[in-house]
Write a structure and sequence with these properties.
single chain; 290 residues; 13 strands
Length: 290
């Protein structure tokens, strides 16, 4: 069995401990402020994005990984591990050009398989972790790598992910919500629930009313009720600015619902630029079909 290298973008929000454990390669997306292009990742100070908004009343813009960057990325992996097979888990093709760019770059190489996760942030993390476990079970076996890639693609329908923006200021500043909708939602303390549909698109499905502390418990219970999730792990994502109280409410609800662990991950800078401070989200996976 050849070594299989998993890779993805910063938008997948893979926790550092998981990246270290499974040697996952991560390529940065881009954040643009004042005409300066910053690489996303743990080294990017999210507070600067908030400060930029406070100063300009504009949300920082973002851009996906381009084809040339992917070519260099895959080339470096191959130079370091010439006999490797690369499985690249791309941010949803319905939400970004990242997947298409990765696919175009992969055509320059042999045995580079691009997996459209049809998901974002922690949904991608859940996908990658599930694929890691699947590959581990095949250790020592003779592998048909194209067939393995197809088997991994079959994981997508089992994953569920949703999030609630902390406020609509960044969405409005980025042109993703109208001023009228922003004012109405602010006055009524409305928070849209953004879900990832089966095709990987982000869809506003309903609205919660009240503070994040007030809606957090209901969000967890409704998310779990709507999806037949495996109770091993619930992934909790958040942006800087969320209160410890809201996070604690999610933890408590997860325990009460039977989850063995609730993994916390701060959302990367690029996605924070879209969702703004104080956002919260959940991701999980359904059990394997009989």
């Amino acid at each position: 069995m050849r070594e299989i290298i998993f890779s993805t973008e910063t938008g997948s929000d893979v926790p550092q401990a998981m990246a270290d454990q499974f040697h996952i390669r991560i390529i940065p997306m881009h954040i643009i402020m004042d005409g300066v292009d910053y690489l996303d990742g743990p080294a990017f100070p999210v507070e600067e994005a908030y400060a930029y908004y406070e100063r300009t009343k504009k949300a920082p813009t973002t851009s996906c990984v381009n084809v040339d960057e992917y070519i260099d990325f895959f080339k470096k992996i191959r130079e370091e591990q010439p006999d490797s097979v690369i499985m690249h888990f791309a941010y949803s093709s319905a939400a970004s050009a990242t997947c298409q760019n990765a696919q175009a770059a992969s055509e320059k190489f042999q045995d580079v398989y691009v997996i459209d996760t049809k998901n974002v942030t922690a949904g991608c993390t859940v996908y990658i972790r599930t694929a890691c476990d699947l590959v581990h079970k095949k250790t020592g076996l003779t592998i048909d790598y194209p067939a393995l890639a197809e088997e991994i693609r079959g994981i997508a329908p089992r994953i569920s992910c949703a999030f609630i923006p902390g406020n609509l200021e960044f969405l409005r500043a980025g042109g993703r919500v109208s001023n009228a909708a922003y004012l109405g939602a602010t006055i009524l303390q409305l928070k849209p629930l953004i879900e990832i549909d089966p095709d990987g698109a982000l869809v506003a499905s309903k609205r919660y009313q009240g503070s994040m502390e007030k809606v957090a418990g209901r969000f967890v219970r409704e998310f779990v009720a709507n999806h037949e999730l495996d109770r091993k792990t619930l992934h909790l994502i958040y942006t800087l600015g969320i209160s410890d109280t809201a996070l604690g409410i999610v933890d408590k609800a997860a325990r009460e619902l039977g989850f063995k662990e609730c993994v916390h991950t701060q959302i990367c800078g690029a996605l924070t630029c879209h969702s703004g401070p104080g956002s919260i989200g959940l991701a999980g996976i359904a059990g394997e079909p009989d």
